[in-house]
Amino acid sequence: MALLEILHFPDPRLHLKAHLVKSFDKELKKLVDDMAQTMYQNDGIGLAATQVNIQKRLIIIDVSKSNDQLLVFVNPEVVSRSGEVIGEEGCLSVPGVYDSVTRSENISVKFQDLEGNIYTKDYTGLMSVCVQHEIDHLDGKVFVEYLSSLKQNFIKKKMKKIFKSQ
Ligand code: NI
């Protein structure tokens, strides 16, 4: 396993749209292992391939405190949604920034596993928000882009200051 470099907002590569995964091979499993190690190392609860500069429609999530409930979603797609919920979100690509975002409260997600099997599952609460946040990454959207342009400019300046030396 290897730790991967996480891109930080406002890196333009975070706005690239990810491509459908077509090969369910060893390389994909290795990428998931590396992404999981990277997510756990950084105390994240979700990570999209886009955040490690890989344009594949792949996200991982683990909302457990014990870090042993890894969920892998290949080619995830929200097929239905209902309700509305406002929650505080954060992101490994925007470290130290937390703000409220309005999301669908309940979603049905169609996705594939690492073998290519297709599932549709329903999620609510934190899992629902997390899946929506991560799918946004695959479409080139970072959660801070839901905030006012004033806040976004402030966050950009803050990030540039933090990562100036990198
Ligand atoms: Ni994120």
Order of helices and strands: HEEEEEEEHH
| Widest sheet, order of strands | 1-2-3-6-7
Q: What is the mean pLDDT?
A: 96
Helix content: 25-40%
Number of domains: 1
Identify the quaternary structure here. single chain
What sort of overall outline do the alpha carbons produce when their principal axes are compared? globular
Number of strands: 7
The DSSP helix count reads 3
Which distinct ligands sit in these coordinates?
nickel (II) ion
Structural class: alpha+beta
Query: In the CATH hierarchy, what is the superfamily?
Result: Peptide deformylase
Query: Main β-sheet, in a few words?
Result: 5 strands, antiparallel
For the termini, the CA-CA separation is: 23 Å
Corresponding CATH architecture: Alpha-Beta Complex
Proportion of residues in β-strands: 25-35%
The Rg value, from CA coordinates, equals 15 Å
By CATH reckoning, the class would read: Alpha Beta
Structure description:
The chain has about 170 residues and is α+β, with helices and mostly antiparallel strands. The chain has a single domain (about 10-165), classed as Peptide deformylase (Peptide Deformylase, Alpha-Beta Complex), CATH 3.90.45. About 25% of the residues lie in helices and about 25% in strands. The chain has helices at about 25-40, 125-140, 150-160, and strands at about 45-50, 60, 70-80, 85-90, 100-105, 105-110, 120-125. The chain has a five-stranded antiparallel β-sheet. Strands 4-5 form a two-stranded antiparallel sheet. The longest helix has 16 residues, at about 25-40. Nickel (II) ion (NI) binds near residues 91, 93, 133 and 137.
